[in-house]
Specification:
The protein is of the alpha/beta class. It folds into two domains: 160 residues, Rossmann fold (3-Layer(aba) Sandwich), CATH 3.40.50; 168 residues, no CATH class. Helix content is 40%, strand content 24%. It contains 13 helices and 18 strands. The chain has a seven-stranded mixed β-sheet, with helices on both faces. Helix 1 packs across helix 7 and helix 9 packs across helix 10. The longest helix has 16 residues. The mean pLDDT is 94.
Length: 340
């Protein structure tokens, strides 16, 4: 994983990055993460494309630096510089600071007034943030105005934990992990009486979620019958691996994807990811089985969302996506990937 820590000069990137790498390696128990000061790398590799007379400084060759990062290979990296967001990265953290506080910090460095004001204006105009968002990558902001570097590093660490690893191909559930996936991933509403009554209880427990996702034909059917249209419905036309006999009256667009039993295809993963921010209801019809679709939904959907899925002959499971639940899902995903 590559994490870029960017932001205007004076926002505290250097100290926070050093502490962050220490914390990450402490958690791993060995030096898995490496910190790269991009300015030092540019100096060591002589990666400059010219000289800026106005600012009296050399112009860093960011394309050359990107190639150097690409040559490092499969290693966890923290990249630090005010242009780190221009590098290849899986996650971009933009450090921000109140302009007044930033001015104080830059003056304390002994910078000339013109240079101080130029960087304060860049912070006011959100230059680093705007450029980072243009990359289309996952971007988070951390305000450092009233925080010590230790606290900033902790916030970044939590953001890294909530960032799922990149899915490069199809995944299969390892046999040794199957017992874990037979247990409810949330709170089970026992099936007492009709499926419709069970669904009523599940809806009541769900409250008013940020997004409501259903996985499975029966639970989707009962919600629609109750007049509740999920934001995302994932079905496969089956119940207990036999054709589902009832009509699910979902009047919304349908996307078809392929996914085998006991697996998660990249196609399914990317389809769910594509509709995370979709504003209208959508139906994802799985050709194969949707038995593991709860995992990508748990990883990808925003906090405050709720997933409802059925356990055959047992009831409906309500998964409330808190930060802790999302971390749990990401840990499961990483284990699956490690065991491929």
């Amino acid at each position: 994983m590559i994490v870029a820590i960017s932001g205007s000069p004076g926002t505290g990137k250097t100290e926070a990055a050093k502490i962050l790498v220490e914390k990450l390696n402490e958690e791993k128990g060995f030096e898995s993460w490496r910190l790269i000061d991009l300015n030092k790398m540019a100096e060591q590799k002589k990666l400059y494309s010219g000289y800026d007379k106005k600012r009296d400084c050399r112009i860093v060759d960011t394309d050359g630096l990107s190639r150097e990062i690409g040559r490092i290979g499969d290693q966890d990296l923290i990249l630090e510089a005010h242009y780190a967001h221009e590098m290849p990265a899986d996650l971009i953290i933009i450090l921000r600071a109140n302009p007044g506080k930033l001015r104080e910090r830059l003056r304390a460095k002994g910078w000339k007034t013109r240079k101080v004001e130029e960087n304060v204006m860049a912070e006011i105009m959100e230059v680093c943030k705007s450029e980072a968002l243009e990359t289309g990558k996952r971007v988070f902001e951390v305000d450092t105005t009233k925080k010590e570097p230790e606290k900033v590093a902790e916030e970044i660490l939590n953001l890294i934990k909530l960032t799922p690893p990149k899915i490069e191909g199809d995944l299969r559930l390892p046999g040794e992990m199957k017992p874990e996936f037979r247990r409810p991933f949330g709170e089970l509403i026992p099936l007492k009486g009709s499926g419709k009554k069970c669904a009523e209880q599940a809806l009541k427990m769900a409250g008013k979620p940020r997004k409501l996702i259903t996985v499975g034909d029966p639970v989707t059917y009962y919600l629609v019958e109750l007049g509740k249209l999920p934001d995302i419905a994932i079905i496969d036309g089956k119940e207990k691996r036999k054709p589902f006999q009832k009509e699910i009256k979902l009047d919304c667009p349908e996307i078809r994807v392929k996914n085998p039993p006991g697996g998660i295809t990249r196609e399914l993963w990317e389809t769910i990811e594509r509709f995370v921010a979709y504003k209208k209801p959508i139906k994802i019809f799985v050709e194969g089985e949707e038995d593991l679709a709860v995992l990508p939904c748990s990883v990808l959907m925003p906090e405050g969302s709720v997933i409802l899925y059925g356990l055959p002959d047992k009831g409906i499971v309500v998964v409330k996506l808190t930060r802790e639940k999302k971390e749990e899902a990401i840990i499961l995903l990483k284990r699956i990937m490690e065991l491929q």
